[in-house]
Amino acid sequence: MSERAELRGPVNRRRRTTISGGGAVKQSNGSKCHDAGENPPQYPDDKAKTHDVSDVHASKNWKGDREMEKTGQQLTNSPRKQRSVVEDFNVRLSCHVLQESLLSSASGYSNYRGILNWCVVMLGLSNARLFLENIIKYGILVDPIQVVSLFLKDPYSWPAACLIIGSNVFILAALYTERRLAVGTISQTTGMILHIINLTSMLIFPSATVLTLTSMTPGIYTVLFLKLFSYQDTNRWCRQIRQAKAKRLTRSSSCPSVAHSNGSAVNTHVSYPGNLTHRDMYYFVFAPTLCYQLNFPRSPRIRIRFLMRRLFEMLFFMQLLVGLIQQWMVPTIQNSMKPFQEMDFSRMVERLLKLAVPNHLIWLIFFYWFFHSSMNFVAELLQFGDREFYKDWWNSESVTYFWANWNIPVHKWCLRHFYKPMLRKGVNKFLAQTGVFLMSAFFHEYLVSVPLKMFRPWAFMGMMTQVPLAWFVGRFLNGNYGNAAVWISLIIGQPVAVLMYVHDYYVIHYGNTT
């Protein structure tokens, strides 16, 4: 080993030394340094050092002291670094910071999933207690055969079925009127008069049938009325566009053709008057929408698993609704008649609150059954692409937001065929909104009073009270307070109307017997 290498060795790397039995010191590189015969290595400071185990430890301590000295000099020379070290030291010793409690609105905390789960559990336990109390008091009242027997009893005189079959007359009348208008064989005025007669007859005919015969609600005719109104309105707009362009549009097939090999729909563009076909009309009649357009969005294929899930939900929730009504609603309503007759206010409030829970639960189940399960089933079967049947109405902070988002098909119809045309005619927004609520109140009363064969203004008044309620909530309540007001109106308002109609029906039909 050269003298230069020996001088550089201790500086570049540390060598472990081992004392052998013969007095020799064995280094890590395998060479031996004996007590005599060789010169000890020279260090950079030209001081001789004894090469033993204590020198190794001294070298380590010397290096650590040099690093600490260097750090101390840097801290002394840099006040900013010295302050940062002190602040870091204080942070390590601190356990308190400036912050708000989680339940305070200023904290910005919004993850209340655990509290929501707790509410669901408490709600389930409370309803389970009420349901158990109901069974102990009344026994098992659920009878699925009773509902089926309503449809099997006297099958040769079903007014409801006859009404459904007879609706084809009004459907075809609207289609052939539009065909005559498209080719110009009748004038626009004549076509408008024919449509008015057809639509008015659709409201009068089922009402007269239900009032004279034992039948079900004319709800199907109400839906068909809105559909045919949109049908004639949209085709009238197409004629106006065609006249404005002053050119003939190409005629094409009505509905997208379905490729039976893979089940996918091949969308072909439809233009007026190529849409005036039986296939196009009946596709619109069965489609889960109230607004007509020439080209509906179509899904590429039918998903069998999705279809079967929706079908299972429809059957299950339908039976659940019937069971809850038979077991929970009917006994509660029957026990509510005596307090109403005696005008016992405290008992009336107690009956109202007791009815509010099952009524609201049934309403929520009905919403899911109809707007999610049933409408998605029909949409999947017809490959109807627009599946937005509802929005987040449960987050409504105003009454107007709730009515605009819980029933999207009706909202689109009111917006397209009633609200916007009124605005284009110069009507202000408040009067236009009031007109929408007025029309909705009429149809609510129509769907309730006609089947019950008694005319009471409770449903009409209930809808019209939404106008001042919407103004009050929008003016004075915001955020969570507005959302709570919407929920209270839903939970309390519906059972009030139910009790009013049941009380009047009971008085009219069974008042003399009691």
TrEMBL record:
Main subcellular localisation: endoplasmic reticulum
Membrane topology note: Multi-pass membrane protein
Gene Ontology cellular component terms for the protein in this record: endoplasmic reticulum membrane
GO MF entries: diacylglycerol O-acyltransferase activity; retinol O-fatty-acyltransferase activity
InterPro entries assigned: Diacylglycerol_acylTrfase1, MBOAT_fam, Oat_ACAT_DAG_ARE
Pathway: Lipid metabolism; glycerolipid metabolism
Name of the protein this chain belongs to: O-acyltransferase
Organism: Cottoperca gobio
Gene: dgat1a
